[in-house]
Amino acid sequence: MANHRFAPPRTKEPKEPGTGLRAPVGRRKFLGYLIAAPTLVVAAEFTRQQIFDAPSTAWAAATPSGPQTPEVYDLLDALRDAGRPTANLIRIEVNKDGTVSFALPRSDNGQGIITSTQMIIAEEMGLEVDQVKVTLADARPELMFNQLTGGSSTTFTTYTPIRVAAALAQMRLLDAASQLLQQDVRTLTSRGGLITGATGGSVPFSALAEKAASAVDQQVEVALKPREDFAIIGKPQNKTDARDIVTGRKCFATDLQIPDALPTVICRAPDLNGTPDDVENIDEVRGMPGITDVEVVSTGVAVRAKTFGQAIDGVRALRVQWNDGTVHGEDDESVLAKVRAAELPMAVPAGVGETIDCAFTFYFASSSSLETNSAIADVRADRAEVWGAMKNPIAASGDIAKAVGLPQSAVTVHVTEGGGSFGRKLFYDAAVEAAECSKVIGKPVKLMWTRADDSRQGRVHPMATSRIRAQISGDTVLSYEQRHTSVATQVNPGFGDAISTGAVKAPLGNLTLSESIFELTQVTPYDFGVSTRFLNEVDMRFNTTSMRNIYSPNVATARELMVDQIAAKMGKDPYEFRRAFLKHDRMRGVLDAVAKEGRWGRSMKKGTAQGLGFHTEYKGVSAALVEIDCRPDTVNRKIREAVTGPRVTKVTFAVDIGLVINPRGLEAQMMGGINDALALILTSSLHLTDGHFVEASWDNYFYTRQWNTPPEMNIIIVDSDADEPGGAGEFGLAATCGAIATAYARAVGKVPEYFPINHKDPFPFEPKPLVPPIPESPTDGLRHTY
Amino acid sequence: MPTHTFTLNGERVTVDVEDDVRLLWVIRDMLGITGPKYGCGINVCKACTCHINGKAFNPCSVPVGAIHESDEITTIEGLADGDDLHPMQQAWLDRDVPQCGYCQPGQIMAAVAKVRQCQREGRDLDDAAIEEIRNICRCGTYQRIREAIKAGADNM
Ligand code: FES
Ligand code: FES
User: φ and ψ at A295, to 5 degrees?
Assistant: First the structure.
């Protein structure tokens, strides 16, 4: 299925004399630091010029539309610039046993960044990938906002500093080996942690770790391995934690065994964000089997027990009076009316040319990962210790400190590996709650949100509308305007600081936070004359977050549907039209790749169709070609407790993300994004009714399953000459959303007005009760064995 | 308090706990075996999939009182033969299936049982059979899962 097609290798630049670790004059040098320590410890910082000589100059082609912000300065630049002042704290250590270790100040929730970081270090130090130990760093407040995993930024922001540190470590080890072996450093080779001299003799890293150490902190110049010598970066690498995963050893937050941290579940209100008023039977529940504690906390009533099953039983038995929630009485339609009322007007009046208007609604979607929100907390009088998967542990430790009334320095936050994030773990709702529970109960707790909590009270991707007006005249698009209006997306404190710090540097300066993210990520990739894109948000006190992107999947869906309509008006083929109007050859490269590989324009049976989508973001470009089957036999197939509907039968996806560290990991990320796109366009959304979300589990919220997923998926990685990696974690969605939507519209002969397309269908399930807030576990499991 | 004895990953275990506590919590919270994951508690997500006497089942939906002394429960931790991985685990590694990994213990246990079921019933392990697997992967690894099941089945 996988199909990696790389561009022909770059013609090697003529090697300058003496190329190697001792860089010749003329090769870019980087500053690294030797840190005084018993064994070799190196650190690195970076500055803009060192990393990125000329940002995106290739993109600034003269176009009728003029460059939009992301073309010259995008979200990744903003995150990196924001992280710059403290990035020098990235440190690599060579240990006495010869291993090389690095604590990655990021959160891995399945994106494979631990593996790609091992690869980057192994490349510079001539090691095998598994000889590098990468762990996730605890919260390090001194890093300020440079410890943040979001906006697909990790590889982009850490790539060069990690390489600089690794190259410096390698240089020091070679120097030490040269002295020990009494041989010229240029004749030494380093492989697998062993440095060997040309005239015989070798010495392992373990024998050099102390010798190469520095007695004082000092600044050193270092050159990086040239790209044409890469042996690891760019080669497919399996995830290094896969064996732990397939044997059940990988440890998530609730798998940790922390002494006395007993299972704890919170009884929550029927309303979204409702709060407890009074508990009628607290003592009765305290006396139930296995239950150790029941206490009122700010978000509900916490029940601590020997097992989660007993804690859930306790929650189910509680009789609580609740205060109204934040959207009491509201529903989809009332919220949509408020969003519509906030839509900004178009700048160009209708009738300037031939006017095409369209409007789309995107309903709430759940960002629930398979691991529910969970955290362990042990809060004492003078200190607190918290464990959880957090993408922004520094902000978390601050908020935990506030919640339990301790100074931030008394709070230790351990970052565990997460079971999926997709944006939700930028927040740390469970960590703050766990800390509060531990404080109120006076004992350690292992807090877990149940699935119903996670689905109904957890963070959501906001409802939004996208209106577009295009004016055309003959074969020219005179203007293209998009107005995106959304329930406010919360951006958590750390992320916020990072973006606003960076956004003021972007050409438009001084935008509000979500306007900044919109402006930094959204670009209309076509030459569509006067082009404007505005965002307006309505704050309605929902718990929102990005979900593998904030705006792009919706913006792209609306845009690509509009592009098809403009093409149709002009009587042009959708592929030829896109080709003609895309701004750059790099964009056309991925479009051509999917058209060729996916056989654009092949004859399709009635009720089935192809569709195209394109998207640019994160310093990359992507295109998708989708085939969909909307024939009645397919749409109406029956699977119990499932949504079937139109079936995407084939996806061809091409991505050019710049330098690819790990093509196998990149392909996995694209695959995940594509499966998310199916859900967003076709099957899954939350319904707000009477102040709460209806969906309480995966049999209500229809995320993509095996029976929905395309039997054929072909992911093409188009390599480009870029020296740096772009972002990848969220990139699979937007183009695919556009392609599914355009394919669907073509197959059924009608452009949908809202997404997912099944949002207004009758519920294919009986809604679960709100009180008690957790459904009872069935008891008939042994009747369903196979 | 009632006592329950059964075999877990080849070892005899005994726990004292009320009959109605679901087996998932007995395994995870009392016996400390954490491979089977919680994802819904109502037999929907299948993240907790284990084997009982060789067949797939979901311990979140079985009270411990329903387990007999003669029952053999296998979690993902008991699938390999010591250091020798089960062919399905190996196929998962070869295809680099996992992303976050949270669903994967359940996916592998379901896959093994589905292959055995098809073998028992003399059915092909085709796309239709694979689409009977209900396990959710919220990271969206479905295509690699499909490839891995077929590869793993070839060695079973
Ligand atoms: S936790 Fe058992 S099926 Fe979801
Ligand atoms: S790998 Fe993350 S849920 Fe499947």
Answer: -140, 150
Does residue A698 lie in a domain region?
Answer: yes
How many CB atoms are closer than 10 A to CB A43?
22
The answer to the question of residue A143 being in a domain is yes
State the pairing for strand pair A476-487/A445-448. unpaired
Kindly indicate whether the ipTM for this predicted assembly is greater than 0.95, answering yes or no: yes
pLDDT (tens digit per residue) in A177-214: 999 999 999 999 999 999 999 888 999 999 999 999 88
Residue B29 to residue B68: CA distance in whole angstroms = 20
For residue range A723-746, what is the model confidence (pLDDT) as tens digits?
Answer: 777 767 788 999 999 999 999 999
Please work out whether the CB of residue B45 comes within 6 Å of at least one atom of ligand 2: no
pTM of the predicted structure, to 2 decimals: 0.89
Q: Which ligand is nearest to the CA of B48?
A: 1
Give chain A's domain count.
2
CA A309 – CA A774 distance, rounded (Å): 11
| A299 and A431 belong to one structural domain | yes
Name A577's Cβ contacts closer than 8 Å, sequence gap at least 6. Answer: A563, A566, A567, A570
Tell me which residue range forms the domain holding B55.
3-76
Instruction: Judge if A31 and A113 occupy the same domain.
Output: yes
**How many structural domains are present in chain B?**
2
Asked whether residue B118 is domain-assigned, the answer is yes
A568: burial class by Cβ within 10 Å (0-12, 13-18, 19+)?
middle
State whether residue B31 sits within 8 Å of chain A by CB.
no
Please tell me the distance in Å from A270's CA to the nearest CA on chain B. Answer: 18
Please answer whether residues A400 and A384 qualify as being in contact, where contact means their C-beta atoms are separated by less than 8 angstroms: yes
State whether A112 and A9 are in the same domain. yes
- Do A688 and A604 share a structural domain? yes
Mutant choice from A115, A239, A245, A765 vs B, greatest count of B C-beta within 10 A: A245
**Whether A268 and A174 share a structural domain:** no
> Which one of A433, A448, A463 terminates a domain?
A448
- A370, A454, A675, best to mutate for ligand 2 pocket (most atoms within 8 Å of CB): A370
